[in-house]
Amino acid sequence: MSAIRLIHLADIHLGFPGPTSLIFNASEQEEALGRYVREVDIERAVGRMVKAIVHEQPPVDVVVIAGDLFHRPAPYPRAISRAAKLVRRLVENGIGVVIIDGNHEITSVLHTGSPTTFLKELGAYVANGNTYEIFRDCWGHLPGEKWERLKRLAIHALPYRAVAENTEFSGVRPLPGYTNILVTHGRVSGMDDLNSLHRTAAPVPTELLRRGWDYVALGDWHIHRHQPLRDAPAFY
Ligand SMILES: [Mn+2]
Question: What is the pTM of this model?
């Protein structure tokens, strides 16, 4: 079996507190006493998800996270720790990890940098600037049978800042001879104009999604499996 097994995640929003009046009390969840219910929910869901991914058969080759791994550009310690655990567990189980930044990871303070940068140190491939990056021929460290499957895989990363700060995407194209995955974050042109921060979302040109990708992993619109265009294999 030579099919690539890729998992597409997006908009995990680690550190999202939810309604701050919803707090665990001792009779419900002793270990989460005093914590925001929604934030703990997300942590637990991520834990279950990672466990399922690393035990999946046949094994998963690559996980892509299409933006908004974190809810804030300067996440709090628990969110940082959970993100590290997520990446570490995938990487130590021989799974490739590609992460792009979403609109929630954009910092207005130039000096702080992106919250996802440190995940490179744990073995993830991270695109968090304002440019287009391609990750390919970079899977040689994975177990042999995975490397064979991934030799011709190219993951094209277009983080939110690259979508928001550029108007011209003519160079963003599938590579001949590769299985081509585009990972990006934003609203497809013509969709609802406000994102979850109630600001105008940067539009991803529809034409960009129709350039012959094998799959497009979208983030931003929190509708699981939503396919904005009938004629392109692009999904939120
Ligand atoms: Mn989001």
Answer: 0.93
